[in-house]
Specification:
heterotrimer, A mainly alpha (118), B mainly alpha (638), C mainly alpha (472), B: 638 residues, mainly alpha, transmembrane helix (chain C), NADH dehydrogenase (quinone) (non-electrogenic) activity (chain C), membrane (chain C)
């Protein structure tokens, strides 16, 4: 039992060592002449323009949040719809309360302008 | 429900009403003098009405003599200690309620005249209300702790009122002296309460009464200790020897205060406490004897000082100390009845005398020496008459109130076999008659002093005096040996014994009183005997009495040499060693705090690092510490 | 399933949602004072409703949800805190540029989260309640739009709060892995010693300790307390902390066995001691009143957690009693800070100079509340400390009482420092410090309750005793 594991672990170690060795050796033998162009971040051959740390519009975030609301709703609605017959009136009313709460939230988001792209 | 029944059920209102008055005055009526005093009088008059209702209710229900009426709720509790707050009304409390509310109301009416135009008018009435409320709360306390709280409160009020003229050095000193002297007593009392609680597990009066006899049988010596410790409180509060020194100085306060607090009510709180714990002193004969002899000695001692004093209120103060000694002695010889009876009558006539003295001082704008007053009788007929009534009552001339109660005390002292105390008390009675009539003859009957321009006081001052005067005359009739179901039937401890009139005691005390008055007349009225010569003859004795047996000087010396010396030494230690230590510690703590404060960098990464790092460290710590418990578990050690 | 056990939570949820809808209907330009009063009255109704839940002691939803006297008492602590905070914030909210109505709705939602925590009998329910509370607080802390410090505090709280939540969740998942259950009473029977349990317990302590700001998980509190709008700071300092205690007591006393498992008591006592010391010592050099109160609240957490060391009903009673009086005294102090901030635009202690002349009511309330926090008799803080340390001493553990005593002596120094400025010094200028009606009500209430509960702690003490006994 252990022997088989030993073989596998040997294989893993060798597999790990080879790339490490390759990188290390190439570092040793490669010539090092740096120029500003060489220091640039490689991005599809084109020079980068401006700061990479830019601001997003928060509206993305709001959209995402509203999406999550409906996502969760679906997660609950699916099993409920499948088992609807067995669950009875109680579950029916319950689901309506749940949806009503979501609607209030949606109403709020709408009214506060979360869905408008400004 | 009748008014009487209502009063009994709601006796807690009696202390509450003056307190409401106090709150109203300090919050709303601070600048409205008339409204403030009227409020105070109305609220204390309502208390008086309720107190009368309580007395009436008790008269309808004789079973309350044995079983006090208790209503209480739990104040706080913790394992091993449960303290309730509430009211306990029995005949003893009813007497006190009546006396306190009556005197308080009268004094408040009197003060509208006496304090007229004083800049601190409303403050004065606020204090009076607070005092009345605390005193009444003390009276209806159901347990020792509640009583102690109110006991301290009345002490505070007394302090405030003695120092009422706070701009006077002497008043401030007197207030301080009173506070500190009574503190000594309170400390003893508190110790006693703690020891009592530790041993009996309760402080409720009713429960104590049940548990004490068994305890007395088991541990008599410990009970004596408790009794002695507790009695130190009354020694301080009721001005018993040797802690009596504060009471004469307390006369620095306004005269109505002296009448209310330092004659009729607060100073008898000590007597009342001993009466409340009569069950304790009853089963501890040693402690009870201590009470008797301290009381008897104080009575005699203070009377002998009063013989030669020259200031009117000082004479009255020493006479108060002496009379309080009487009450204590009565309790000590085992007669609750006599003590409470004397407490009541004494409140009437001593309050009357203080108010009359206040009236005289008011008229003379502060001439305190009786030898400079002279012949006030002509200009102040009413005040003089009231003073004479008071004098006759305290001297023990029948049928004035003081005669009956003093007679009861003397009789009880003799009946219980304390012959030595009986002789001492009789001598005191003689001296009392002498110094009181001396004061009256010198101040009111001598030739008029042309330097003075006295005038009679206004009606607002005369009215309360007349009420008290009537009571000083007839108030004793409720307890004569011939009264069926008199005072002694209602206020008693144990079985009711109707005392037989003892003609030798009665006659003896009358003869002594008359002799005292006659002697005073001979010296100061008719001047048959020359006072100056007498003074020279008695020389040393006179000086001893006049200088109050040098007690104050002894305390002064003790204070200056020993306490101050020790104080100086301790101050040095405090300054250089303790303070240095504290300062050093404070310095180190402060520095430590400042260093730690630097760890609060405001950097988010730091905080997160500390949070996670702490978790790692704690896991490691638990791993190391927990290792042995883990080993024990795995090795099956447990 | 017994839905009546959820009645007070349903009421709170209804109130919050109703407020939200009301905000949508009401015209935008109108002021939102009415919202504050509606919230206060609504919460008062919820408070009254909770009184009917005493003595039920039942659980529902397969033991996920429990209503015992303990949880009811804790809910009342939160509701009282919320009512006081709402009232003290009515006038503050009017100064906000936007989202004025939502402020109250968010407070109610945070309260709902706390109520869920108090009644949760299972790790997941605890976590849901905790997150509802915490996420709402992220928003509330950053509520002062345009104020850099408020936003900074919000971001810091968001990130650190997430870290602590992650830690807590990790601990909980390990517990689930060890026992196969998330219900607290079931865990008790299944846990035995293992190295991974040590990790789990440390992580639980870390996660909860963050909420109650136990040293060394307290680093966030001074920064966030300082930056957040003052009424929110008050709510954060009292209710969020009390909620942390509510779950911590339940999880540790009922869910984690001591015998044969990990000795978490050692850890708790260690941290309690350190917290008492550090909180008080670092409070001394503070010059900002909110930071000072932050460190003081750290120290208070140390006193309270010491009550856990007795492991019995009296100790829990001490914690419960202390939470209530801690709420009242702290809200009183923070309300004064709110008013002074509004009038003088400063939180610096030195600027409180002469408050005794400007507004004696504010100055005396602040003095009394601080002295109560210091534990000076006869104020209620003394009684609370007394209950806690007495319970611990009854178990023969003396050192917490000693440390607590020494440290409360030290705390008197920095508390009285504030009083010194207020009463000794003269005001620097003659700007008035107005006290609006609802805030005055809060101040007078906290003053009266602090004094009255100190003199007459009986009824609340008995309620707390009953609540504590329902746990055991």
């Amino acid at each position: 039992m252990l022997k088989e594991y030993l073989a596998i672990s040997m294989f893993f170690i060798v597999a790990l060592l080879i790339p490490v060795a390759v990188i290390f050796i190439s570092r040793l033998v490669a010539p090092k002449k740096t120029t500003p162009e060489k220091e640039e971040v490689y991005e599809c051959g084109v020079d980068t323009v401006g700061d990479t740390w830019i601001r997003f519009k928060t509206s993305y975030f709001l959209y995402a949040l509203v999406f999550v609301v409906f996502d969760v709703e679906t997660v609950f609605l699916y099993p409920w719809a499948v088992q609807f017959q067995q669950l009875g009136t109680f579950a029916f009313v319950e689901m309506f309360i749940f949806i009503a709460i979501l609607v209030v939230g949606f109403w709020y988001a709408w009214k506060e302008g979360a869905l408008e792209w400004k | 429900m009748s008014f009487a029944q209502f009063s009994l059920n709601n006796a807690w209102l009696i202390p509450m009403l003056p307190f409401i008055g106090f709150l109203l005055i300090v919050t709303f009526f601070k600048r409205m003098e008339k409204t403030a005093s009227t409020t105070a009088i109305i609220f204390s008059a309502m208390s008086l009405a309720l107190a009368l209702g309580v007395v009436a209710a008790i008269a309808q229900r004789p079973e309350l003599i044995e079983e006090p009426f208790v209503r209480s709720f739990r104040w706080f509790s913790m394992p091993g200690l449960e303290i309730s707050m509430g009211m306990m009304v029995d005949t003893v409390a009813a007497v006190m309620l009546f006396v306190v509310t009556l005197v308080a109301t009268m004094v408040m009416i009197y003060s509208t005249g006496y304090m007229h135009g004083d800049p601190g008018y409303t403050r004065f009435f606020a204090y009076l209300c607070l005092f009345a409320s605390s005193m009444l709360g003390l009276v209806i306390a159901t347990n020792l702790l509640q009583m102690f709280v109110f006991w301290e409160l009345v002490g505070l009020c007394s302090y405030l009122l003695i120092g009422y003229y706070y701009f006077k050095d002497s008043a401030r000193e007197a207030a301080k002296k009173a506070f500190m002297t009574t503190r000594i007593g309170d400390f003893g009392l508190l110790l006693g309460i703690v020891v009592l609680q530790l041993n009996l597990g309760t402080l409720e009066f009713t429960e104590l009464a049940e548990k004490l006899p068994a305890f007395a049988a088991a541990k008599p010596a410990l009970l004596t200790l408790i009794g002695t410790l507790i009695f130190i409180g009354p020694i301080g509060k009721s001005g018993q020897f040797p802690l009596h020194v504060w009471l004469p100085d307390a006369m620095e306060g306004p005269s109505p205060v002296s009448a209310l607090i330092h004659a009729a009510t607060m100073v008898v709180a000590g007597v009342y406490l001993v009466a409340r714990l009569f069950t304790l002193f009853h089963v501890s004969p040693e402690a009870q004897h201590l009470v008797a002899y301290i009381g008897g000695f104080t009575a005699f001692f203070a009377a002998s000082i009063a013989l030669t004093q020259r200031e009117m209120k000082r004479i009255l103060a020493y006479s108060t100390v002496s009379q309080l000694g009487y009450m204590m002695m009565a309790l000590g010889v085992g007669s609750l009845t006599a003590s409470m009876f004397h407490l009541m009558t004494h409140a009437f006539f001593k309050a009357l005398m203080f108010l009359a003295a206040g009236s005289a001082l008011h008229a003379l704008h502060g001439t305190a020496d009786i030898f400079e007053m002279g012949g006030l009788r002509k200009k102040m007929p009413w005040t003089a008459a009231f003073m004479v009534i008071g004098m006759l009552a305290i001297a023990g001339i029948p049928p004035f109130a003081g005669f009956w109660s003093k007679d009861e005390i003397l009789l009880m002292t003799k009946l219980h076999g304390f012959t030595d105390l009986y002789i001492l008390a009789s001598l005191t009675a003689f001296m009392t008659a002498f110094y009181m009539s001396r004061m009256v003859f010198v101040a009111f009957f001598g030739p008029e002093n042309p330097k003075n321009h006295p005038h009679e006081s206004p009606a607002s001052m005369l009215f309360p005096m007349s009420v008290l005067a009537v009571l000083a005359v007839v108030g004793g009739l409720v307890g004569t040996p011939w009264t069926e179901h008199g005072f002694g039937y209602w206020v008693r401890f144990g079985e009711y014994h109707h005392p037989e009139a003892d003609w030798t005691v009665m006659g003896g005390s009358v003869v002594l009183a008359v002799a005292g008055i006659a002697l005073a007349w001979a010296i100061y009225g008719a001047k048959v005997i020359d006072a100056e010569k007498l003074k020279q003859r008695t020389g040393f004795l006179h000086t001893l009495s006049f200088r109050k047996f040098f007690i104050d000087e002894i305390y002064q010396w003790f204070n200056e040499k020993i306490v101050t010396g020790a104080g100086k030494m301790l101050y040095w230690v405090d300054l250089h060693i303790v303070d240095g230590l504290i300062d050093g510690m404070a310095y180190i703590t402060g520095k430590f705090g400042e260093q730690l404060r630097l760890t609060q960098t405001g950097q988010l990464q730091h905080y997160a690092l500390v949070l996670v790092g702490a978790i790692v460290l704690l896991v490691l710590l638990m791993g190391i510490v927990g290792a042995d418990s883990a080993m024990a578990l795995m090795g099956g050690g447990r | 399933m017994n839905f009546s056990l959820l009645s007070s939570e349903m009421l709170a949820a209804g109130l919050g949602t109703g407020l939200l809808i009301l905000g949508l209907i009401a015209p935008k330009t109108e002021n939102r004072r009415g919202f504050g009063y509606i919230t206060a009255f609504g919460l008062l109704a919820v408070l009254v409703a909770t009184f009917f839940q005493y003595g039920i002691n039942q659980s529902t939803f397969h033991e996920l949800w429990i209503v015992d006297d303990y949880s009811v008492f804790m809910k009342q602590v939160f509701i009282v805190a919320a009512i006081l905070v709402v009232l003290s914030a009515v006038d503050f909210v009017e100064t906000l540029p936007r989202f004025r109505g939502e402020f109250f709705a968010l407070i109610v939602y945070a309260l709902l989260g706390m109520m869920v925590m108090a009644s949760a009998n299972d790790l997941i329910t605890i976590y849901v309640g905790l997150e509802l509370m915490t996420i709402t607080f992220f928003v509330l802390v950053a509520y002062q739009l345009g104020d850099g410090r408020s936003s900074e505090a919000g971001i810091k709280y968001l990130i650190l709060g997430s870290v602590s939540s992650a830690v807590l969740l990790y601990g909980m998942s390990i517990l689930y892995g060890l026992t196969g259950t998330t219900t607290i009473p079931e865990m008790l029977t299944k846990l035995t010693w293992s190295p991974i349990l040590v990790v789990a317990i440390v992580m639980l302590i870390g996660g909860f300790g963050f909420k109650i700001s136990l040293v060394p998980f307290h680093m966030w509190s001074p920064d966030i307390y300082e930056g957040a709008p003052t009424p929110i700071t008050a709510f954060l300092a009292v209710a969020s902390k009390a909620a942390g205690f509510a779950v911590m007591v339940r999880v540790f006393l009922l869910g984690l066995p001591l015998e044969g498992a990990v000795d978490w008591m050692l850890l708790i006592s260690l941290l309690a001691g350190i917290t008492m010391v550090i909180g008080n010592v670092v409070a001394i050099p503070q010059t900002n009143i909110k930071r000072m109160l932050a460190y003081s609240s750290v120290a208070q957490a140390g006193y309270m957690i010491a009550g856990l060391m007795s492991m019995d009903a009296p100790g829990v009673k001490g914690i419960l009693f202390y939470s209530m009086i801690y709420v009242v005294a702290n809200v009183g102090a923070f309300t004064v800070a709110t008013l002074v901030r509004r009038a003088l635009d400063t939180d610096t202690i030195a600027d409180y100079a002469g408050l005794g002349q400007r507004q004696p009511l504010l100055a005396s309330t602040l003095t009394i509340c601080l002295l109560s926090l210091a534990g000076i008799p006869p104020l209620s803080g003394f009684v609370g400390k007394f209950y806690i340390f007495q319970a611990v001493m009854d178990k023969g553990i003396l050192w917490p009482a000693f440390v607590g005593f020494v440290m409360s002596m030290i705390s008197v120094y920095y508390y009285l420092n504030v009083a010194l400025y207020m009463w000794r010094d003269d005001p620097k200028d003659d700007r008035p410090v107005p006290v609006p009606g609802p805030a005055k009500l809060v101040i007078v209430l906290s003053l009266v309750v602090t004094v009255v509960l100190g003199v007459y702690p009986g009824p609340l003490g008995e309620l707390a005793t009953m609540a504590a006994k329902s746990l055991f």
